[in-house]
Amino acid sequence: MSHYPFTSAEMKAMAGVVQMTCVDETREMIEQRKKGLLTSEKTCNKVVDCWKSTRAKTADKCNDQYEKLVGCISNNERRTLKCKELRSILEECYVKNVMFNELGAK
């Protein structure tokens, strides 16, 4: 089984962006769990690969916003307004600079 190569703060920072981009992979994993099955290694690897590529794209286009959010979460302030605002800024950056570009490229 692959393990996420991220700290929990990094994973929490990425969560919103991943929800937007790894929809199919995540849905497949949830469906397997709903059926009471352990998630298959193939499905897990798809999710992890999607996480990794999303993280790489985030680092490429929105690294400052990402680092600020990770810092906020690392300080155990995840539920604060400051972190929520930073999450919105990161997601906005990702949508503008990554998702729109990918849609335009297709």
In summary, what is this structure?
With 106 residues, the chain is mainly alpha-helical. The protein has helices at 8-21, 23-34, 41-74, 81-105. The termini are far apart.
Explained architecture:
The protein is mostly helical. Helix content is 80%, strand content 0%. The protein is globular and about 40 Å long.
Beta content comes to: under 5%
**Share of helical residues:** over 70%
Shape descriptor: globular
Look at the structure and give the mean pLDDT: 88
The rounded Rg comes to 15 Å
Structural class: mainly alpha
The biggest sheet, with number of strands, parallel, antiparallel or mixed sense and barrel status, is: none
Give the count of helical stretches: 4
Count all strands and give the number: 0
How do the helices and strands line up, and which of them pair or pack?
Layout lengths: L7 H14 L1 H12 L6 H34 L6 H25 L1
Helix pairs in contact: 1-3, 1-4, 2-3, 3-4
Please describe the structure with a list of short key phrases separated by commas or semicolons:
106 residues
